[in-house]
UniProtKB/TrEMBL annotation, chain A:
It comes from Rubricella aquisinus. Pfam families: ABC_tran (PF00005). InterPro entries: AAA+_ATPase (IPR003593), ABC_transporter-like_ATP-bd (IPR003439), BCAA_Transport_ATP-bd_LivF (IPR052156), P-loop_NTPase (IPR027417). Belongs to the ABC transporter superfamily. This is Branched-chain amino acid transport system ATP-binding protein.
UniProtKB/TrEMBL annotation, chain B:
Keywords: Amino-acid transport, Cell membrane, Membrane, Transmembrane, Transmembrane helix, Transport. This is Branched-chain amino acid transport system permease protein. It comes from Rubricella aquisinus. GO terms for biological process: amino acid transport. PANTHER family: ABC TRANSPORTER PERMEASE PROTEIN (PTHR11795:SF451), BRANCHED-CHAIN AMINO ACID TRANSPORT SYSTEM PERMEASE PROTEIN LIVH (PTHR11795).
Length: 271, 334
């Protein structure tokens, strides 16, 4: 779907700084762009600032006493940092939060319907059909209470719920969390299909660098609140540092975890 | 049938109808607790305020009359007109919606993401503020509330039941207040429509979504403010109905706000999150306390058991079934 050369930029994050509770500086200048029709991966370890970046974009930060203090967030040429999440959903940007966050006491279908809160009745019906074609498993379980479905089904439910809003861009936070490798593969495949067939652009925050870089078109690597590396996914995959620190591979194949631990060389990009 | 049995039946029926009124108050709690996770201590005062407002509008009282007179040295108390009951109720509904809007915009919005205990404290503050504000606005006299619901014992029921008694029994028929019957009918209708609203409509679904996971609701584009205003308005509406019923029964006065305390054991019994729980809990407590008083309280314990029976029952429930009869199970995946 991503056509190199003549891509249109959907989302532009310029050098943003985020502070929680007026004191804790979490992002120290993050810039990134999300092209239309692409899958962009946002990689990094725990506490690198992936989730905060996504929440800054979707404006869910306010509910957690976080605040964008510097920089700008531009979606389709408009500044969106001061909008509320509902406005942003209407503009086509929706976030699937880390840890799935299904409405546990609602059935799977009710969860999906809630996702279409900003849509008309006809669009809701259409959306439901679309979600069920991509996630046949949700159709089977549509009358179960979401809280009692498996982790994989909940993740599908959360993505499906976001799709119901007919978004142009989905901010997907850690879809692999707590899932078996096979399921991770399944979910990323569906993401890829959605990207190719429905033209939905994705910004995916992910710790599982390996999977993310296989499915994404381009990637950013965050470390303690800064972007330390960016580029097309294929290039990042081949980068020796990324291999070493994120994929667990040295020049001579897979490394033992023990060696990596004692091996505390400064990363090349920090020097 | 023997007179003893008929007396027992009468006690149970009256208990049932008192229970309906408890349910009505508990319902207001459940609505707000479900949607915003706040235990709204002010629910009882809301009922009092709604009843005061209704009477005030109906009888054409000048709001803040005392204050106006004190400042301007005037002597105004009444506009000198009477507003029809239905129109007065409509105005009261508008006042309660305005009240909901103010509560959300002034208090709740600023406390987003705070601990439940802080929100609870805020509603305690709100309760006492409203109590004073209501008295200032409509003065604190005990008032009669009459919106045209018939009241008094039903002769028809008396006549019918008198024939049930066995030959030769001294029995004069059952005393059932028509007002109670009306209250029951109205409460049932109110509950049915609220339950249908929550289950089948889009805002109702959004309301349940907010109750489940406010952040996730926010993330799919549901505006929490709107849902909260809606829910507080609904609770205000329930407060009006409760206020009308209790006010018609025992006059509009301060003690009206204490019915909230009767709702607490109802909630513990029925579960804080269940609309049907509030109803069934109310009925059980209503019938339970009357029967207990009649069968055990008066003969053996010297009476006045109605004051504590509900709490003891609730305590037993808390120990053995903390989520209440119908409360949502805390879902935990293993």
């Amino acid at each position: 779907m991503l056509d190199a050369g003549k891509t249109e930029t959907l989302l532009e994050v310029n050098n943003i700084e985020v502070i929680y509770n007026h004191v804790i500086l979490v992002l120290k200048g993050v810039s990134l762009t999300v092209p239309k029709g692409g899958i962009t991966a946002l990689l990094g370890g725990n506490g690198a600032g992936k989730t905060t970046t996504l929440k800054a974009i979707s404006n869910l930060l306010q509910a957690e006493r976080g605040e964008v203090t510097k920089g700008s967030i531009i979606y389709r040429g408009d500044h969106v940092a001061d909008l509320n999440p509902a406005d942003l959903v209407r503009r086509g940007v929706i976030q699937v939060m880390e840890g799935r966050h299904c409405f546990e006491h609602l059935t799977v279908e009710e969860n999906l319907l809630t996702g279409a809160y900003t849509r008309s009745k006809a669009e809701t019906k259409e959306g439901l059909e679309m979600v069920y074609t991509y996630f046949p498993r949700l159709k089977e379980r549509r009358t179960s209470q979401a809280g009692y479905t498996s982790g994989g089904e909940q993740q599908m439910c959360a993505i499906g719920r976001a799709l119901m809003a007919r978004p142009e861009t989905i901010l997907l936070d850690e879809p692999s969390m707590g899932l078996a490798p096979q399921l991770v593969e399944e979910i990323f495949t569906i993401v890829k299909n959605l990207n190719e067939q429905e033209g939905v652009s994705f910004l995916i925050a992910e710790q599982n660098t390996n999977v993310a870089l296989r499915f994404a078109h381009q990637g950013y690597i965050l470390e303690s609140g800064r972007v330390v590396m960016e580029g097309p996914a294929a290039e990042l995959r081949e980068n020796p540092d990324v291999k070493e620190f994120y994929l667990g591979m040295g020049d001579e194949g897979r490394k033992s975890f023990r060696d990596t631990r004692s091996y505390r060389r400064r990363k090349r990009w920090l020097s | 049938m023997s007179a003893d049995f008929l007396n027992l039946l009468e006690v149970a029926i009256n208990g049932l109808m008192a229970g309906v009124l408890y349910s009505l108050v508990a319902l207001g709690f459940v609505l707000i607790f479900k949607a915003s996770g706040v235990f709204n201590y002010a629910q009882g005062v809301m009922a009092l305020f709604a009843a005061q407002t209704l009477v005030g509008i109906q009888t054409g009282q000048v709001p803040f009359a005392h204050l106006i007179n004190a400042i301007f040295g005037t002597e105004v108390h009444y506009f000198g007109w009477n507003v029809p009951a239905l129109l007065a109720i409509l105005f009261t509904v508008l006042v309660m919606i305005l009240f909901a809007w103010i509560v959300v915009k002034v208090i709740l919005v600023r406390l987003v993401g705070q601990e439940p205990i802080i929100l609870f404290m805020a509603t305690i503050g709100l309760a006492y503020f409203m109590e004073g504000f209501g008295d200032m606005m409509w003065n604190s006299e005990v008032k009669r509330l009459d919106v045209g619901i018939p009241s008094g014992g039903s002769f028809w029921i008396e006549d019918v039941t008198v024939q049930w008694a066995a030959e030769g029994e001294r029995y004069f028929g059952m005393y059932v207040d028509v007002l109670d019957i009306w209250a029951t009918v109205i409460a049932v209708a109110l509950v049915a429509s609220l339950a249908a609203f929550a289950q089948y409509t889009k805002p109702g679904r959004a309301m349940r979504a907010v109750a489940d996971d406010p952040t996730a609701a926010l993330s799919v584009g549901i505006s929490l403010n709107k849902i909260w205003i809606m829910v507080w308005s609904l609770a205000g509406f329930v407060a009006i109905v409760a206020g009308i019923m209790w006010g018609a029964k025992s006059g509009v006065q301060f003690s009206l706000s204490l019915i909230a305390l009767k709702a607490l054991p109802v909630l513990m019994l029925g579960g804080f999150t269940s609309i049907s729980g509030a109803i069934v809990g109310g009925l059980i407590i209503g019938v339970g306390e009357k029967l207990f008083e009649y069968l055990i309280g008066v003969p053996f314990l010297g009476g006045a058991t109605e004051n504590w029976f509900a709490y003891v029952l609730a305590l037993i429930f808390l120990v053995f079934r903390p989520q209440g009869l119908f409360g949502e199970k805390i879902i935990e995946r293993v």
